Amino acid sequence: MKEQTLVEMRNKIDTLGQVVQKIYMEMQNLSDLSIGTHELVKRFDGYDAAIEKLKDEVAKTEEPKDGLIE
After folding, report:
1. What is the predicted pLDDT for the residue at 61?
2. Residue 70, pLDDT above cutoff 60
3. Structural domain count of the chain
């Protein structure tokens, strides 16, 4: 291969590495945000009752698989 082609390939690889790094950082930020939001919501009044209600609704709407609800 020509040296110019190798240089272009190297530049593309470097660019892709930077993009992957930015995506990783954004995923970390979203993870932190979702954990913080969940912790905040858990402190709302009525959270436990709402969770139990959701569990009951899910249990009623799920189709049993071989007689079991997972």
Report:
1. 87
2. no
3. 1
